[in-house]
Write the structure tokens for this entry.
Amino acid sequence: MIVQKFGGTSVADTECIQRAAWIVAEKYSEGNDLVVVVSAQGETTDELIDKAGKLNPNPSKREMDVLLSTGEQASCALMSMALEKIGMPSVSLTGWQVGIQTDSAYGSARIKAISAERIKAELDRRRIVVVAGFQGINGFNDITTLGRGGSDTTAVALAAALNADLCQIFTDVEGVFTADPRKIPDARKLEEITYDEMLELASLGAQVLQNRSVEMAKRYGVNLEVLSSFERKPGTKVKEVIKMEQSKISGVAADAKIARIALVGLRDEPGIAFKIFRVLANAKINVDIILQSIGREDTKDISFTVARGDMESAAQVLSEHQNTIGYTDISVTDKIAKVSIVGAGMMSASGVAALMFEALYDEKINIGMISTSEIKISVLVDERDADRAVSAIHAKFFG
Amino acid sequence: MIVQKFGGTSVADTECIQRAAWIVAEKYSEGNDLVVVVSAQGETTDELIDKAGKLNPNPSKREMDVLLSTGEQASCALMSMALEKIGMPSVSLTGWQVGIQTDSAYGSARIKAISAERIKAELDRRRIVVVAGFQGINGFNDITTLGRGGSDTTAVALAAALNADLCQIFTDVEGVFTADPRKIPDARKLEEITYDEMLELASLGAQVLQNRSVEMAKRYGVNLEVLSSFERKPGTKVKEVIKMEQSKISGVAADAKIARIALVGLRDEPGIAFKIFRVLANAKINVDIILQSIGREDTKDISFTVARGDMESAAQVLSEHQNTIGYTDISVTDKIAKVSIVGAGMMSASGVAALMFEALYDEKINIGMISTSEIKISVLVDERDADRAVSAIHAKFFG
């Protein structure tokens, strides 16, 4: 049993769908049970959002989900037709037909359960089942969507529910690279990567797989493979444990879509950090790196990063709470980028951090903040230095 | 309780949807319960058919319905957003959410039942319910569509199921006219028309309302009104009995999308007509006018009309069965048109047929076949004479 997922670029037009259909047909003809998950075609979702925005700049999320889910529904019908054309028995199913039960968080719903009976019945009839990704229904029988990249989550959830042997994510890149191959010509494709490394890479802006889908794959032990629908080459396998890699790190990634906020002159007493991040949490603003440092004369400073789109509202709510939090100054900038290296065995190998910092020093790139975890080291640098930083670090580890 | 249906041209773009939303809001604000049925936007359905055709010239009807139903689903979400924008509480529902149960004739399904509980619950909460037209689900939980113009049927079926006081069909014309106003400048809008007249007019190519929806309205006594969403004028009311009209007929219509087939030299014995029309029925070809005349020497001739698109296949199957049917010659032409007058009280009024034939005689237009019913007289004329015939007949009755 194999679950194959084709992203928006992999079903963008007639030719892409036909290409994808042949990939499916090949695996089916080898005797596998096949479940295929499809995204909306190319720019469809953006076009629908645009259309809605003209009618109502602030439409209800429920109606938005009714609208957006049509994109994947159209894709699954088209894919099924393409499979029929080449003689493959096939049936398309929407989220509600599959029985993908979610909570009611329209626009970013989470899957609660999958009643895969219909899928199993169709597979028993030796049909290829083409499922509309990204969508489900809540307890009121209303349509929900899983948020951007939600089709990855659909694919992994189905692989888990059906106990599939493999979940293949087809996209427009050949796999996971040691750095963004569009910017670093020397970047090389990884044969294997762990779930944890993949999670760090996704959150670092590598944008290969949606984080939720990787978390789910890790939790249920789903064997993932990321590969291209345009070139017939092996992709990157995502697993719990991988064989020894030659290098100590798996990849270098940059994320420029962030902003840094620094609060200066905070009282050095308990509860300050709690107050700050409670205010931000109430405003539904996610915080990434947090750094606390000692300031002048019994004060402390707290800096953190947020998504660039949240910068304005974060500054706004913090200003509103200046008195309760008690800071003297706030500074905000979006002229920064986060550059990170990821590797499962990194921290146990000596000198990895030093090597990274040396690469930046060689290039005379100033480091703004440093944050480390078991498998990741991130630094903030000036936005203009980001590409150069990735290039230098990549050359140092993989060159 | 009012059901309002907006066709594809009435929701074609942002401006059209906004205009429709104000029409809905007005009736809602008067205190009515409102159910709104929408078609797919403008050319959406044709575009989807085109897209499917590129992947598979002969896709399964099941998958086609999954694909096409997305058009109306997108429309109902967009209409609901437009209503929200102007402060109207509103909720969109798809065919399966409403519970529109159909048979399994994908592409031309018939409604078997409507479980309108969800709609009633939403109306009880004083919400405007926006329903995706044209679609339902069958007993397997698969999506079905009702065929071209199926949104009219959805609207009338909902009006019947909900016992609505009125079902308004909004379109791009102001109502039903005594002739096609694009061709006959003197054509005038009818204030009222009977179901039966409307049925004859629709089948004559007037193309205002889908025939099935009128039949259903007649069966369940649904008060229909056909009107424009672009101009705020009273439309045409469709009822069982209407008040006396000044003229004896309601309208003149031409249908050029027909072909005539004549079988000559048939044996004059029982069962011949049965054989001919059984062969055609088996090939799923619908026949309109049938005329039988006496031929030479103990033979008879049978002529009939079919939709122009069916001409080739009709001629084909009849040729294959020439021996069993037993005719000497077959003649086929599509250079003809059907011109008809319709009026509920026509046959009881003397001289109507004579007046029609006089109009044609004045214009020196030759009549090919004549067919009459209780409320209709149709003649076949040369295709090139059709417009002139309508104009002359219209002037004779309404001039």
Observations:
- Chain A has 13 helices and 20 strands.
- The radius of gyration of chain A is 23 Å.
- The interface with chain B takes residues 14, 17-18, 48, 51-52, 54-56, 59-60, 62-64, 66-67, 69-71, 73-74, 76-78, 80-82, 84-85, 91-92, 94, 96-97, 118, 141-143 of chain A (CB under 8 Å).
